[in-house]
Structures are given as structure tokens and as C-alpha cells.
């Protein structure tokens, strides 16, 4: 089901009525935070199952949690004062939630060993997963909240929860014996307690910026099949937050310095996909082999950030962090945070960074969620990033607005500067439709003097897929698409019509229609009755379209990985060949297999030379995994999967 735009949810929200219920608050929440409270309250009132508040980084999820907690404190259920548990995995998030609720006049106890506190005195308890699960049969044996609010809820292992339910595990001992995850034990035990105490279901609300756990979607709205999270009640994007001024705008610095990391390609798809440990090690080796480039890059970064606040630098490995840090001039303050940094030291470093005591923080990938350091105003990327979700989470660290104490100290933050020396933005910009990537592509093209104009005269970058112009008065977007995919008729493998489509134009990388929410054409439709097993497939590490040897030949160049080994493979096509078999192979295996947009199919059918194909290469979608065989010394690629969750 398509979630209503947040603007519509705000329009339907009675802010005065909410203020009358909640009473005095420490500051006026944003209109969208009122709207989130409203849709959350409605979902609680008509509770069907666990649901998610999806809001991008810096949307103020702690404020949203505090508003709901404030209302819970006013409630009595079956003669009992309503109780709630607000839970997170990291001590930093527990501390943030605790402090914001106190700010909203919601007294709450803290049950978190990482913060040195274990109390359950108040009806609302804020706790860490590891500390709470260990106290369920001891200090928290009688704690039976009706509400469970989970911060960063994408970290819940839904598969483990479902498996526990299907196995019929009823007690904590059963679940511990089965080796269940901490979240599973807490959720299932509190579900049992709520039903016993109140005679009703535990109300479970999740808060997250992504509705994926790694590459797996966490929401399953089909109640006829096993699932846990059943719906998202809102979807607040970073683009929207920038428009309403709750985060600072992002700008981009375009440099001629860049690592050569072409062999490492993000594979696309949804969720928080990231490069494997082996890939990261190889990436770090490739960077180290590029001699003095890191020193040159860090010298440029230092000069560009002399008058800026804090800088978050993302590297490929620990040694890369050290190498980059050593390149800073003597006396520049810095710290390195990795997964091996203990919780106490990590909190101390982040606190010092937020107070301006440490200018540069180097990390690999452990600071993408649950970190609140508004002092950062520069993000430096020194490697490839595995997915759009991770990139947005990473850049979200630098868009937060300064706190009052920052202003009191004389700090100013007008924007968030992104410096990409690893090619992450270029890779992901070709795979996804996202406002941040659009803005970066325009900045890069503008810097390189590569522009074009839409029929209405608006200037765009050469690689724009949709006109970037917006009306300064209404915010309405120009409707011209340079390259698009139409929401049309969808058929199954037997030719039966599944959906007529609404006819709206969408980006070529979009999986769902922006107007009707329908799934767009699936390139895997013909693969629904495949006989290959998962183990037969090779991961596509990278995919490129380029001219090949031979008159008019075009090549699909793959870097594949299977069983930890990477190797190259090619598919060669001859679009302009006189051979009917060659032209048929290009049509069915080159065009129709990789292209879903009618305009793209049309353009590629007209392409008879390698240069013609390259002009329309943006229509050609990269698969994420394929089957590969060697036959007579030649590569044979038969099955191709383009979207993980459709396989």
C-alpha cells in the first residue's frame, strides 16, 4: 500500500488538538513530527500488529518517541498505569532517548549497563537490549509494559522471531536453549506478559530510517504469511527534511583527485548492502598501492575544511584510517573509531567531537546509525559504498542542525559539504533515483561544463535523467524526463495481465511507481520457473557496457564472484550484424533482458553500431547475480537476477 505523502498527513493533522492533549512541550515540534504522532496514535488505536515509523536520519525520532511516551504517561489500562519500554542496541541511543524524554517532562528509568544505570522505578524504562534481556528473569521479572518502542528497529532479526513463533517456544528458557537473539527473547516475553496483565496485545512501534535489515525487507503486510512488522505509517525523506529546514542543505566539492577503484562496484538492490570483508581488504590494498594519493587528498581536505567545523572521514580499513590521519599537518586533532573501539572510549570521542575538541574523526563504517554529532559539517568519502541506504545514512551524520550550546560557543553551520574521492557517488548515481545523487551529478557535470537543457529551457547536467528544475514558489518539479520508465501493463510468464499500470513516468532505476505504488516491470518475470539453485549463481561485482573487438560489437563486461573467487566474464553482441541469429541474440539477451523502459527498448532497437548503443547505455540495467558456465572456452551467461527480493 502506498504511504500518503507526509504533506497530506500534516494537512490531516489537528495540531491544536494534539497540543491540548500533550500539554506543554520544551519547544514546538515540526509539523511533520505532529503528523507522525497523529498517524502513530491512530495505528495504536486501531492496532493490527507491529508497525514502523520510517523517518530519515535527522528527522528527530527521539522527539517522536518522546511525544508518544508523554501520551502513554497519561494512560491507564484495566486499572493499571500504562508502562512502556523504549529500547535500543547502543548505549548512545539509549542516552539520547532518555534525555529527550526527560526534556519532554517524561520521567523515565535507565536500564543500560553501558551507561552504568539499572533502574526500573518509573513506568517508562529506557534500556539497552543486552542489559534488559539479562534482567528479564531477575530485576525486570515483574515488568510488563503495554508499549514497546524500538529505536533503530531494522536491527531486529525478523527471521529469528518468526522461527521462534513457529517452533512454539513459550518461555525464556525455551528461547535461550534454542539460541534465539536478544530482541526475539525480549519481544516474545513482553508479548506474553502484556496479554496476561492487560488481556490485549503488546503495542510494538519501530523507528528507523530504513525498512531493510541488510538487504532483506523487514515489513510484510500479508497477514496470511509469516511476518512481524506489518506496515509503515509514514515515510519522511532527507529531501523533505531539507526543504522544510530541519536539516542543513548538502553541497558537493568536485575534485580532480580520485582513487582508482573501478574494480569495486556496488551491486545495487535495496537495503543496507555493503562490501564483504574480503572486498574491503582488497579495496584497502588497492588504495595503499596508489602511493602518495592519500597524502594529496588529505592535504586538499585539510585546506578545504580550514574554516569548517568537524570532519567525518570514511575509509576502507584500519590501516587506511591511520594512513589518512598521518597525512594531516602536525597539531591537527583527530581520532579513529572502529568496531574494536570500546563503548566508553567511543562515547568520549564522540562527545569531544561534538564539542569541537576533535576536528577529524576517521571511521570505516561503524558510525552510520545512532550517532548524533551535529558539529560535523563535512563528510569525506575515501572508498566505495555498498548501497544507497548506507550512503544516505552516512551523509545523514553531517546534516544535523547545531544545538543551542554550539551557537553559544560561536559556531555556525550553513551547509553540509561532501567530498567524494572514492567514486561512491558516481557508482550509485547510475543505479538509483535519489535527490542527493541527482544534486551530486548536476554539481559534477556543471564543474566539468557538461550541461544540457530541457525543452522548457532549464539547465541540467549532461547525465540528468529528469529535469532538476523546481519552481521557487511552489516547489513543483519540472515534468520533463530525458530518460524514463513508464508504469504500464504487467503480465506474468503465461501472458496474463497482472496490472494495467497508471501510465506515469518514473526513473529507469525505480522499482515502484511514484504515483500508484505499483511494482514496475520485472526483468526477472521469465525466470519464475527456473531450475537453478541459489548456489549456482555468481555475484555480479561490477557490470559495464563498452565497445568490444569486432566491427560494431558491444560487450557486457562482468566481474563475477563465486566461492570467494573473482573472475571476468563477457557477453558479446553484434547489433548491426547481417546475421539474423546475431540480431536475435542482441534483441532477446541484450535488450529485452536488461531494459524495461519502452523508450529505452525503442532506442536500443534502433542502435546498429557500438556508438549508438553507448549513447543509450543508461537504459541497460545491471544484474546483481547471474549463472555462469564455460563452454568451448567462452562465457555462457544464462540466468540473470536484477532484484534480490523478487528472486
CATH homologous superfamily of the largest domain, by name? Answer: P-loop containing nucleotide triphosphate hydrolases
For the biggest β-sheet, the strand order reads 6-5-7-4-8-9-1-12
DSSP helical segment count: 21
Task: Kindly report how far apart the N and C termini lie.
Answer: 21 Å
Under the CATH scheme, the architecture of the largest domain is 3-Layer(aba) Sandwich
Biggest sheet: strands, sense, closure? 8 strands, mixed
Remind me, CATH topology of the largest domain?
Answer: Rossmann fold
Average pLDDT rating? 89
CATH class of the largest domain: Alpha Beta
Strand fraction: 15-25%
Shape label = globular
The tally of beta strands, per DSSP, is: 29
Number of domain modules: 3
Question: What's this entry about, in short?
Answer:
Helices cover 32% and strands 21% of the residues. With 647 residues, it is of the alpha/beta class.
Amino acid at each position: 500500500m502506498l504511504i500518503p505523502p507526509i504533506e497530506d498527513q500534516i494537512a490531516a493533522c489537528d495540531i491544536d488538538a494534539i497540543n491540548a492533549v500533550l500539554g506543554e512541550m520544551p519547544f514546538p515540534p515540526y509539523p511533520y513530527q505532529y503528523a507522525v504522532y497523529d498517524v502513530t496514535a491512530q495505528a495504536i488505536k486501531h492496532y493490527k500488529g507491529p508497525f514502523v515509523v520510517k523517518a530519515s536520519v535527522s528527522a528527530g525520532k527521539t522527539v517522536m518517541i518522546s511525544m508518544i511516551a508523554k501520551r502513554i504517561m497519561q494512560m491507564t489500562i484495566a486499572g493499571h498505569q500504562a508502562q512502556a519500554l523504549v529500547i535500543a542496541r547502543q548505549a548512545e541511543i539509549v542516552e539520547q532517548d532518555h534525555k529527550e524524554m526527560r526534556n519532554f517532562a517524561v520521567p523515565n528509568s535507565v536500564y543500560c549497563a553501558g551507561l552504568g544505570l539499572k533502574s526500573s522505578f518509573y513506568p517508562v524504562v529506557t534500556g539497552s537490549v543486552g542489559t534488559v534481556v539479562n534482567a528479564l528473569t531477575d530485576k525486570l521479572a515483574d515488568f510488563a509494559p503495554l508499549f514497546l518502542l524500538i529505536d533503530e528497529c531494522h536491527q531486529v532479526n525478523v527471521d529469528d522471531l518468526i522461527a521462534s513463533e513457529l517452533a512454539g517456544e513459550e518461555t525464556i528458557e525455551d528461547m535461550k536453549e534454542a539460541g534465539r537473539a536478544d530482541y526475539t527473547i525480549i519481544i516474545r516475553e513482553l508479548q506474553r506478559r502484556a496479554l496476561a496483565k492487560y488481556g490485549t496485545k503488546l503495542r510494538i512501534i519501530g523507528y528507523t530510517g530504513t525498512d531493510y535489515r541488510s538487504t532483506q525487507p523487514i515489513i510484510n503486510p500479508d497477514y496470511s504469511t509469516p511476518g512481524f512488522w506489518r506496515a509503515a505509517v509514514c515515510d519522511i525523506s532527507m529531501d523533505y527534511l531539507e526543504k522544510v529546514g530541519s536539516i542543513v542543505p548538502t553541497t558537493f566539492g568536485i575534485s580532480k583527485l580520485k582513487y582508482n577503484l573501478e574494480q569495486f562496484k556496488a551491486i545495487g538492490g535495496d537495503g543496507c548492502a555493503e562490501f564483504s570483508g574480503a572486498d574491503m581488504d582488497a579495496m584497502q590494498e588497492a588504495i595503499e598501492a596508489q602511493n602518495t594519493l592519500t597524502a594529496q587528498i588529505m592535504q586538499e581536505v585539510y585546506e578545504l575544511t580550514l574554516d569548517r567545523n568537524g570532519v567525518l572521514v570514511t575509509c576502507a580499513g584500519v590501516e587506511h584510517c591511520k594512513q589518512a590521519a598521518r597525512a594531516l599537518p602536525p597539531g591537527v586533532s583527530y581520532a579513529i573509531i572502529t568496531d574494536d573501539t570500546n563503548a566508553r572510549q567511543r562515547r568520549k570521542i564522540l562527545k569531544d567531537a561534538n564539542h569541537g575538541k576533535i576536528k577529524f574523526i576517521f571511521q570505516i563504517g561503524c558510525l552510520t546509525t545512532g550517532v548524533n554529532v551535529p558539529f560535523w559539517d563535512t563528510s569525506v568519502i575515501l572508498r566505495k559504498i555498498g548501497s544507497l541506504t548506507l550512503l544516505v545514512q552516512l551523509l545523514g551524520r553531517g546534516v544535523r542542525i547545531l544545538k543551542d550550546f554550539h551557537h553559544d560557543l560561536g559556531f555556525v553551520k550553513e551547509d553540509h559539504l561532501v567530498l567524494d574521492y572514492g567514486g561512491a557517488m558516481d557508482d550509485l548515481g547510475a543505479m538509483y533515483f535519489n535527490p542527493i545523487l541527482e544534486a551530486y551529478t548536476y554539481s559534477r557535470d556543471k564543474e566539468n561544463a557538461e550541461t544540457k537543457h530541457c525543452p522548457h529551457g532549464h539547465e541540467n547536467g549532461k547525465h540528468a535523467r529528469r529535469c532538476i528544475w523546481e519552481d521557487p514558489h511552489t516547489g513543483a518539479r519540472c515534468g520533463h524526463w530525458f530518460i524514463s520508465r513508464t508504469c504500464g501493463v504487467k503480465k506474468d510468464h503465461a501472458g496474463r495481465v497482472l496490472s494495467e499500470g497508471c501510465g506515469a513516468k518514473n526513473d529507469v532505476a525505480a522499482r515502484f511507481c511514484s504515483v500508484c505504488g505499483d511494482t514496475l516491470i520485472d526483468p526477472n518475470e521469465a525466470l519464475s520457473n527456473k531450475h537453478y539453485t541459489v548456489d549456482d549463481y555468481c555475484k555480479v561485482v561490477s557490470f559495464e557496457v563498452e565497445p568490444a573487438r569486432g566491427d560494431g560489437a558491444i560487450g557486457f563486461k562482468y566481474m563475477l564472484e563465486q566461492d570467494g573467487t573473482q573472475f571476468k566474464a563477457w557477453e558479446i553482441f553484434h547489433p548491426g550484424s547481417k546475421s539474423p541469429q546475431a540480431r536475435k541474440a542482441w534483441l532477446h539477451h541484450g535488450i529485452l533482458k536488461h531494459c524495461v523502459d519502452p523508450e529505452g527498448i525503442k532506442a536500443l532497437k534502433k542502435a546498429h553500431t557500438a556508438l549508438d548503443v553507448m549513447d543509450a547505455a543508461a537504459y541497460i540495467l545491471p544484474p546483481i547475480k547471474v549463472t555462469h558456465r564455460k563452454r568451448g572456452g567462452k562465457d555462457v551467461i544464462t540466468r540473470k537476477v536484477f532484484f534480490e527480493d523478487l528472486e
